Amino acid sequence: MLKYAFRRILGMIPMLFLISIIVFTLAKLMPGDSLSGEIDPRNTNPQYIQEMREKLGYNDPLPQQYFRWIGNFVQGDFGKSTRFKIEVSEVLSERLPNTIMLGLTSIIITYILAFFMGTYSGRKPYTFGDNLIGGLNYLGLSIPSFVAGVFAIFLFSFTLGWFPSNGSVDIGTTEGTLEYWLSRFHHVLLPALVLGLLSTASYTQFLRNDIIENSRKDFVRTARAKGTPERKIYNVHILRNSVIPLITFLGFDLVAIISGAIITETIFTYPGLGQLFLQSVGTRDYPVLMTLTMLFSFLTLVGNLIADILYGVVDPRIRLD
Amino acid sequence: MSKKKSLLKEAPLLEVKNLETAFDIDGTYYNAVDNVSFKVKPRQIVGVVGESGCGKSVMSLSIMQLLPKGIGKVKSGEIIFDGISLEKMTEGQINKIRGKDVSMIFQEPMTSLNPVFTIGYQLQEVLFNHTKISKREARLKSIALLKSVGISRPEKIVDEYPHQLSGGMRQRVMIAIAIACQPKLLIADEPTTALDVTVQAQILELLKEIQEVNDMSVILITHDLGVVAEMCDEVIVMYAGKIVERTDVDTLFYNPKHPYTTLLLGAVPKMDEEEERLSSIKGIVPSLTNMPKVGCRFANRCPKAMPECFTTTPMLADVDQGHEVACLLYETSKPREGVK
Ligand SMILES: Nc1ncnc2c1ncn2[C@@H]1O[C@H](COP(=O)(O)OP(=O)(O)OP(=O)(O)O)[C@@H](O)[C@H]1O
Ligand code: SF4
Ligand SMILES: [Mg+2]
Question: Where in the cell is it found (chain A) (predicted)?
């Protein structure tokens, strides 16, 4: 298992290298550069701009620029944000905990909801409860998250006033206190629900269908022939088979959450990496943008690896070596 | 032989009376087992033969109350096991009997075990279901059981998963599960069909041995008349959901009465063409939705069919003492006045 993980991680290196070339090329292909953010606005003398370009290395051949960037990158120097005028790593580390909090909350809510709804529906298919859950899920699947987000803000924040509509914490709470954490949780709940909407709906339907399918399998008949009670057959024999794929989805969730966070965080003006990403596109903050893209790509690869490793852990039929 | 004869006087362990089992196909129930009655006595091995699709598995699943829920159901009839009616039982009541007094081995050893639990877990489960036993004892007992069904290195196998075992070994595990609580009746539904020839013989040998040691009754379902000759005391021949002939094994082989039985026997000699044997009779078993409403169900394939075979339904009745046949060639099968 360890050997397998190690080999896979080694295999990521050329992958990431390729991605970095693409990211760099795309950044260079995009219109404009971040020079406008770097120069002193009081001095727009073309001569001066030309000097700055030369000084910042924007006139060097592309491969040279690339290797300078990647060389610094692997040493942990991601450059300076042209917008915030501070180190990219500093910008990211301010936002990262927020996104982690959002992602974790979203995953936990998703799995709890999907587990209970899915097992209920799978055990009692075609009943009123199942149809109700099924109907809600198809609604969840068909509504795009930005619509759901706006609607949730309108209903739960503006109309009912249950949840705040923006930010990650109330201003004026002291960091570390219970009040602070409660406020953070209060802020994260609504975006987390919206972010997990799609996965909740699809995992519920997946679990339901998998339980129904497994309940028709021969091994269920064997368990019944042994005199095993119905309840145990569902809770142990069938469920243990049906949660396997669900657990492996965890790895892919990582990917889904990152792409989902870009939209959800923006709608909820939640200061996380997703919101930062869109903002950086708007302000042409290429150092931040490139670092984020690299980070997201890296997490995608890690997510896939996690999915595969989890498969090996939970399914005795899969051997990783 | 004398031992077998003495069996005949004993009260039956299992008595199936007028069993009708139906499947829901597009909203209508069709009988897959139609008016089947027979008895199994203690320590007896009863063979059930017939082509594919003639209702052998459905009949055995009906006895175990294991029909697929919502699709198949026992429409009428009685299943009396050891003096109690199984067909009226609730799920909770039948669970006390399944695996303990009546066990079953299935046709499909490759899929009958749960892929994500160890052999030991699945074997111990039946022990925990029916006996008060500690974890340690259960483990020791499961190792002993694996050993008794001829699995070498049982201490190791007990912690392995089904996919690590061959088909023959999985079927041995299924047998171990089935006999763990020393049932009075074992239903073996084509226990060897899915296995290769050399393994088949070993498994049958094992079943016979266990039957003798445990003094249990066996319903042995098979395609293979050679197996019947080897193993069984009594034989039930089924065709299209009905019993067409039932008698002791010697009579069946030396004095078969039903044309279907004769054809089955005639098809036996080709020892090497295992699969071909029963299908060498021309035509196919009618499907559930295609079953003739009146007349003999075998009529369109029967070499001895007469015009009345298409209009009169033969009854299963004794032609000789202990030899039941349902064929209009025999007076006894013709409907009498007042009987439908
Ligand atoms: N779940 C089901 N739904 C509908 N029809 C079924 C179902 N199971 C069995 N049948 C039908 O019942 C009839 C009897 O099937 P059964 O499985 O008992 O045959 P069998 O004698 O065991 O055949 P084989 O030798 O192939 O095992 C067949 O016509 C089959 O199509
Ligand atoms: S009743 Fe007629 S068709 Fe049926 S088996 Fe006898 S002879 Fe053949
Ligand atoms: Mg069958």
Answer: Cell membrane
Cβ-Cβ contacts under 8 Å for B119 (sequence gap 6 or more): B113, B142, B146, B157, B158, B159, B160, B161, B162, B165, B173
Considering the domain A92-314, what is its CATH architecture? Orthogonal Bundle (1.10)
Residues of A in contact with B173 (CB under 8 A): none
- Domains of chain B, by residue range, sit at 11-101+181-333
Nearest C-alpha neighbor of A194 from the set A296, A110, A118: A110
The CATH label, of 3.40.50.300, 3.30.750.24, 3.30.70.1350, 3.40.640.10, for the domain at B11-101+181-333 is: 3.40.50.300
CA B53–ligand 1 middle distance (angstroms): 5
B320: closest CA of chain A, how far (Å): 37
Q: Give per-residue pLDDT as tens, B263-277.
A: 998 865 444 544 444
A126 touches chain B (CB under 8 A): no
Search chain B and give the residue with CA nearest A219.
Answer: B112
Number of the ligand 1 atom closest to the C-alpha atom of B68:
1
CA of B311 to the centre of ligand 2 (A): 11
CA atoms within 13 A on the CB side of B116: 17
Assembly ipTM = 0.89
* Positions of chain A with pLDDT under 50: none
